[in-house]
């Protein structure tokens, strides 16, 4: 019984750690700046005029 509980905890903690690492990776990726300049959808709203 204890071995099953220990195995569950190892899998649960390992899976949680993988989820947190992926969440941080995607958060950093989604918050990073895109390609500067105009694209098919219009001008770059962050680009200053002048």
Number of strands: 0
Compute the average pLDDT.
Answer: 90
Shape: rod-shaped
Low-confidence stretches: none
Largest sheet: none
Element-level helix/strand string: H
Estimated radius of gyration: 22 Å
Distance between the termini: 71 Å
How many separate helices? 1
Overall helicity = 55-70%
Strand content: under 5%
**Overall SS class:** mainly alpha
Which features does this protein show?
single chain, 50 residues, mainly alpha, 1 helix, 60% helix, 0% strand
Description:
- There is one protein chain.
- With 50 residues, the chain is mostly helical.
- The chain is built from 1 helix and no strands.
- The longest helix has 30 residues, at 2-31.
- It starts with a helix and ends in a 19-residue tail after the last helix.
- The mean pLDDT is 90.
What's a concise summary of this model?
The chain is mainly alpha-helical and 50 residues long.
Itemize the secondary structure elements and their pairings:
Blueprint: H1 2-31
């Amino acid at each position: 019984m204890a071995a099953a509980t220990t195995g569950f905890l190892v899998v649960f903690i390992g899976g949680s750690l993988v989820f947190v690492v992926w969440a941080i990776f995607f958060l950093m990726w989604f918050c990073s700046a895109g390609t500067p300049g105009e694209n098919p959808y219009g001008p770059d709203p962050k680009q200053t005029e002048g």
